[in-house]
Amino acid sequence: MSWQLKALRVVLRRFVRPALRRQRDSLSARKWFERGAFLNARGRPYLKFAPDTLGHVPALWTARPAQDAPFILYFHGGGYVMGNPRTHAALARFLTRKSGLQTCLPDYRLAPEHPFPAAFEDALCVWNSLTARGITAEKIALGGDSAGGGLALALLAHLCANNLPRPACVFAFSPFADLTLSGPSISANAQREILLPVQRLQDLRARVLQGADPRDPRISPLFGQFEGAPSVLFQVARSEILLDDSRRMAEVLRAAGAEVSLQEWGNLPHVWQFFHGWLPEARIALAQAASFINSVLPAPSSADS
User: Which end of the chain lies in a sparser environment, N or C, as judged by fewer CB atoms within 10 Å?
Assistant: First the structure.
């Protein structure tokens, strides 16, 4: 364990986790997240990104990829109630640098103003808009973190269930894949969890679903169908309350015939990759994710990775 991780664990447990527990509405949570992302990124890297609109969904690109070049489609986390391309711009830039592939960050709609299935509808809109431009699915590495990881998996389930072209590969950092909240790790890791306040999960689910079925695979891909799925990478910490979301998703995908790599790390915070500017463990994890992507989608020869 690096000294940076030891220090970060103290900060997250004593200050960030209690702050998350105190957030009573989505607007204040979003402002809080934006401030934290600014400090984490040490600036605003998104100012150099390229804006786009995919269907009705705004998006940011690290830079527009060359025609026919592969790229990463990344859905940000934030529990479906906060986060945006700006909060995850630094992570996207690092993935792009390591993989040599440009990254697209959609700005999907958030709850409670836009409850389920708004986020999924936006993800599907983005996918359809990209393919309508003539981009083949096999050129896309699909990924995300936390709720964004669940959203990427939900999109994959839809493509598989409807026998539509699948992405080249999928990667998910600590995905939120089961809104029934039935994973044993939610209670088993309640005391070990460094970042997420387990006490707020029920409230979060209510804001997002607003009465919808938590078993719907468009929000809980754990209950989806994945025949013909491509290779999938999971990275999750063994101390997380969402640990079993990754473990059970890996089992579902393997049962459908997919090749799955489940990387379980040590006593790390939820989506520790987000802290790559501070944690060597985060940089290592992202470099491994980039290697996974490049094993399927090699970077263009001119890319500086």
Answer: N
